[in-house]
Amino acid sequence: MKTLLRTLLYLALIVWLGAEIFFPVVAAITFGTLQGSTHTAGTIVGELLRILHGMGIVSGLVLLALLALAPAWHIYKPRTVLAPMVLVVLMLACTTYSQYGIIPAMERDRIAAGGEIDTTNVTNPNTVHFNKLHNRSEHVEETILLFGIATVVLVAWAESAREKA
User: What is the C-alpha separation between 93 and 74, in angstroms, rounded?
Assistant: First the structure.
């Protein structure tokens, strides 16, 4: 049972971080391939980002549950799972903010700008706000990735602490 729970924990981390790492590659290829139609590329990347966030929320909830159960099932010591749990909560908060705060606001700006943000004047207030939100979105995704990497390190530390006991 312990092996199964640890495997599920690692799998949830792998799925979320793997998607976070792979997403910018897919976005770059999409925009590179569809250079003449940035609106279409943006639409595709936006949908992929929504899928990424869904995967992240499910993976994060699984991680939290498994980390919370780990001390009770003598998988990890209680004090070693607190920091990873805090980071997973922060990752979930960032993901939720991006999914339900940033993306809808960007969509409103795109529609208000006439539907295709790349054909509007760069000084248009909707375009300016859209670009600001896009930049914020990139920083939020980078933060999620960094927190995720730190979580991996802390789970590895918890594993080491378990082995020493």
Answer: 28
**pLDDT for 36-94, tens place per residue?**
788 888 889 999 999 999 999 999 999 999 999 999 988 888 899 999 999 999 999 99
Residues above pLDDT 70, as percent of the chain: 98
What is the SS3 string spanning 41-72?
HHHHHHHHHHHHHHHHHHHHHHHHHHHHHCCC
CA 6 to chain centre: 21
Tokens of 14: 């792998």
Residue type, 69: L
Are 52 and 103 spatial neighbours (Cβ–Cβ below 8 Å)? no
Number of Cβ within a 10 Å radius of residue 123: 7
In this structure, the number of other CB atoms found within 10 A of the CB of residue 112 comes to 16
DSSP state of 99: I
The pair of structure tokens assigned to 79 is 């004090």
d(CA 26, CA 74): 40
pTM: predicted TM-score of the whole model, two decimal places: 0.89
Tokens representing 68?
């919370």
